[in-house]
TrEMBL record:
Pfam families the UniProt entry points to: Response_reg (PF00072), Trans_reg_C (PF00486)
GO function term, MF aspect, one: phosphorelay response regulator activity
Keywords (A to Z) from UniProt: DNA-binding, Phosphoprotein, Transcription, Transcription regulation, Two-component regulatory system
DNA-binding recorded as keyword: yes
Annotated positions of the 4-aspartylphosphate modification: 52
InterPro entries for this protein: CheY-like_superfamily, OmpR/PhoB-type_DNA-bd, Sig_transdc_resp-reg_receiver, WalR-like, WH-like_DNA-bd_sf
Keyword Transcription among record annotations: yes
Domain of life: Bacteria
Protein name: DNA-binding response regulator
GO biological process terms on file: regulation of DNA-templated transcription
Length: 228
């Protein structure tokens, strides 16, 4: 049973989400504002956080930033349909997923389950390596030259998927489907995560050598040279 923290200042939204999540066999904790959310996480960390961006006091973006400084807990944002800038900012701060309002509670539960499957609650294991990079799916740890990388859930999933398919070009739609589990979604989500991942694995993120852009298509993982 996973512990889910639902953060929204709308009591009705919290109650509906909590009901659906509990029906899906999750343990649910509710918070009505940013301070309550941060306090709940410090007292007993959740396995995943569902976070509304529009909160009184400490807003959702600041909560996301503070949570990401303290841990790699998966974060799913709840955003208004028109708030593209806030959504992109949330992804830049390290959120793993987003659901636009209004939304289906069933869809939200599916998103929660999808993220949890990729964070060790279930899913494929094994170790994939390429040059100095090693990705251990069982331990949810990625290292580069022996140093552990501080990756968010989706960054880890994206890196593991690309390393497992060296030399193959993927469109953003391909990656949304295979890494996020979406058949429809905002392609900028992939763009943001690729940029963040490059900052953590490339010696010069502005001139990537491993996670390269395939112009007019998308991205490709360039395998390390033998002996590199």
């Amino acid at each position: 049973m996973a512990r889910v923290l639902v953060v929204d200042d709308d009591l009705t939204v919290r109650e509906v989400l909590a009901s659906y999540l509990r029906a899906g066999s999750h343990d649910v904790v509710e918070a009505g504002d940013g301070e309550q959310a941060l306090r709940a996480m410090s007292e007993r960390p959740a396995d995943i956080v569902v976070l509304d961006l529009m909160l009184p006091g400490i807003d959702g973006l600041e909560v996301c930033r503070r949570l990401r400084l303290a841990s790699e807990v998966p974060i799913i944002m709840l955003t208004a349909l028109g708030s593209e800038a806030d959504r992109i900012m949330g992804l830049e701060l390290g959120a793993d997923d987003y659901v636009g309002k209004p939304f289906s509670p069933r869809e939200l539960v599916l998103r929660v389950d999808s993220v949890l499957k990729r964070t060790g609650h279930s899913g494929e294991g094994g170790v994939v390596s390429d040059g100095s990079l090693v990705v251990d799916a069982d331990r949810r740890v990625a290292t580069n030259a022996g140093a552990e990388l501080a990756l968010t859930t989706r960054e880890f999933d994206l890196l593991r998927y690309l390393i497992a398919h060296p030399g193959k070009a993927f469109t953003r739609e391909d990656l949304l489907e295979h890494v996020w589990g979406w058949t429809i979604g905002d392609r900028s989500t992939v763009t943001v995560h690729v940029r963040r991942l490059r900052e953590k694995i490339e010696s010069d993120p502005t001139r990537p050598e491993r996670l390269v852009t395939v112009w007019g298509v998308g991205y490709r993982w360039e395998p390390a040279e033998v002996g590199a």
